[in-house]
Design a protein that fits this description.
two-stranded antiparallel ribbon, 14 strands, alpha+beta, 10-stranded antiparallel sheet, Heat Shock Protein 90, elongated, 375 residues, 2 domains, 25% strand
Amino acid sequence: MYRSTTHYIPPPMSELKSHYLFKKLSNDRLSLIFNGEVNDKITDGIIRLTDFNVNSLEDLSKMRNRVNFIMVECFQNLVRHGKPDNSDWLNDSTLFSTRVVGQANYISSINLIDASRANMLKEKLKQLNTLEKDKLKALYFEILENQQFSEKGGAGLGLIEIARKAGQPIDHSIENVNDKFYNFYLSLKLASREELMQREHGETLRFTRQFDDEIKNSNILMVYKGDFSKESILPIINIIQERMYSPDESSRGKSLYSILVELLQNVSRHALDTQNKEGLFMITFHDNTYTISAGNMVTAETKNALVEKIESLNKLNNYELKDLYKKTLKEGMFSEKGGGGLGLIEIARESSGPLGYAFDDTDNNLSFFTLNVTF
């Protein structure tokens, strides 16, 4: 891979939004957001990641099975109905997110539907939101017995099950895109009955619609904000591997996978030792170029060391980086936090250009450090 070192061009500002997103999601214990095509292979990783983040929360741990069921049903709805036929000329409007905020789990999805289905879906949701739990159960078995199925699944069985398990009206909006397609927004807040009684009408839907615009305008494929301990990064790696490339699929796939693992481990090792190793991970795709970003809080001392290290790596070509890697592997100092900068060297070797970075200074003599890798 050719790696230009003649001059450093920082990534566009849209690719340096890690700190902005970290602040926007500051109250989130977990945020996992997908934009674009999804597949059902990643549901297991999503459940494992969510379980890790909710097991210590009393109210949510009690409804663990219900949360997982609804999350899988929403995700499966996107897999089955995410993109109608003949919509390739539109920007991909599929989005899925799960967020843990306080003692609540928010689940949201967005997908395109054919205009011919819009009125039918509006009427179906209106009906579901007025039915009690026993009547929802009766409707479910009625459809099941009548075998009202199509190639894309049961006739609304997924939505009926979501309504049954949620125990609340489904927040939704069906909005016109053009004369052929509509956007279908669905959002749920899963929490204790007491907390649900205090919620504002449409609060989950407002965030979903606003965030949908921001994600798409920034060409973001995925965002993860939360804990970066070993227990968290393993399911993240699994999710990304299934969502993007397998490590043996192509040379580009191998580079992507290698960078992903190194960046995630880098945050896990070097995030501040607070109660949780908080950080943010993001993938964008624009003009056939991937940009992978990872960010976490660092001290002023760490900031200075990182600037010196990154600037020195950006001056080296591929052959020099390879030699430095071998030398560091042979002579470098190793500790619990990794081996003598091997991770950064490996990232620099896989990158198609100089490493981009940014520091956003905060209070208490700390900075939010973002590392951007393009290829």
